[in-house]
C-alpha cells in the first residue's frame, strides 16, 4: 500500500483553505510584496488552493481548470526578485506555523516551498 500524500497528512482541503486564507492575508499586508498583487484576493486564494492540492499530491484540481501549471511562465509578467522570494517564504512560514499539525509535519510542508519560490525569481 502506498503512503498517504502530504496533502492528506496535513488535513486535506480544510488545511489548505486555512493555509491559503492566512497566507494571502499576510501577503496582501506585506510592505514589500503586496505591490505585486493587483487582482482579487479571493481569486488568488482559490487558485493557490487548487494548485497546492496537486503540488502536495492531492487531486489535479488546478490543471483540470487552468491547464498546465507552467508556474515560472505564469510569474514572468511580475518582476520577482530574491528579496520578494524571501518575503513570500516568510509569509508562508508563518501561515504553515499556524496550522494545527505537528512540528514535524509543518517542517515537511514548509520544506516544499523554498526551491519553488527561488525558481520564480526572474529579475
Ligand atoms: C517567489 C515569490 C513569489 C511571488 C512574489 C509570487 C507572486 C505572484 C503574483 C504577483 C501572482 C499573480 C497574482 C494576481 O493574479 O494578482 C502569482 C500567482 C500565482 N502564484 Fe505566485 N509568487 C511567488 C511564488 C509562488 C510559489 C512558490 C508558488 C507555488 C508553490 C506560487 C503559486 C502561484 C499560483 C498558483 C498563482 C496563480 C496562477 C494563475 O494565475 O493561475 N507562487 N504569484
Automatic annotation (TrEMBL):
Name of a matching Pfam family: Bac_globin
Keyword RNA-binding: no
Annotated GO MF terms: heme binding; metal ion binding; oxygen binding; oxygen carrier activity
Statement: the UniProt record of this protein carries the keyword Cell wall biogenesis/degradation: no
Gene3D superfamilies linked: Globins (1.10.490.10)
InterPro entries the UniProt entry points to: GlbO/GLB3-like, Globin-like_sf, Globin/Proto, Hemoglobin_trunc
Keyword field: Heme, Iron, Metal-binding, Transport
Family according to the record: Belongs to the truncated hemoglobin family. Group II subfamily.
Protein name: Hemoglobin
